Amino acid sequence: MCLWTECGFFKSMRDYEDIKADMIGRLDMRQVAEMCGLVMRRSGQGVWVACCPFHAEKSGSFNIGGKKGFEHRAHCFGCGWDGDIFSFWQELKGCDFKQALLDLARAAGVPMGENIEWTRPEVPRVRQPEMRPDEESEHRMPSLPPLRHLRREECDQVAAARGLDAEAVWLCARRFRRMAFSMWPLYERQGHWMQRTCGAVPSWCAIDGTRKVAEFRRLDNEKYVRQDGGTIKSWSTCGKNWPVGAADMNGRPAVLLVEGGPDMLAGYHFLRLHGMLETVAVVCMLGAGNRIRGEALPLFAGKRVRIMVDADPLKDDENAKKRKMPGMEAAAKWTQQLTEAGAAVETFAVGPIHAPDSLAAWGRGEIPAAEVQIVHPGFHRKDGELVKDLNDLALCSQDVLSSADVRDAFRCWDF
Q: What's the whole-model pTM score?
């Protein structure tokens, strides 16, 4: 009998649905999440909550388990991810369903038999037409909400709202195809697109040709208003560990690696200002808490990568292990990954630079953040506010923008 009755992947003495049902009876979502290292807390009868492993967040919105019949499922109220133990394992481990079934069967102690023969039947395959940003379809469910190219006046609106060069935003959207337009932000839940905010809002999203991930923001730079009255500045689809633009570097020897959609726009702003768009590619990570996806790392081999470090404030906590500096931690994590992949990596901090010994003492819990010594105060915007990210740097005075430090950050790639 064929174990995969629908797909014919492998043969065994047991039926596929029988094995799946046996596993669900022995292994629930909480146990699988625990196997994967998720830290959970109880939130009602049969429900556990953890920080979502598929997007960066400070407080847990990943609900595990639930009422009877849902013990093997989980749902994230932050990014909309929803699935059972098999889809959870696939997403987290980057494997297909076949491998997820084998892994979880072993963990559950379900007998799979010996000498499994893997086969694929000869069946006709139908190729789904690729959805492009300017195509809208009412006849099938796309992998993303309906998208189209941004118009010139919409690019001008985004540029004005963020203090960026309008031509640079236009090039980002139309020449490099890193932006698309959506009339309202949606998220996918159980195969259906559900409206997440109150009313239709003109939005732009950071995206690339792979369509692996997208980050949506309002054209006017305001926050979205949720149905519960709360606000959110952006939202993203699953897959935030994919570096937007990594597959489209087109042979450029240098890479400007930034975090977040606005910094991606600012990257094009500064590279156009310094005439470096033909030499330097802009690549964007959508979340400091995410590691770069493994399949993308070989694309950086032999490149010179400069990481723009966000100036997140040091976050104190009585427990030294919970003290955080997200921007610096993200840069260190990405530096290690990229270096191991064969890239030359350098960082550029737009905010304060701390003395290493003093910073280490803070990390051990010996001193509070206020006592950490600062070697360089960082940059300040024209309004006196501290620069926190690359988009903020565009709002600085001409004296700051023409300084050697800033100029070399975009022109000098010999490291």
A: 0.64
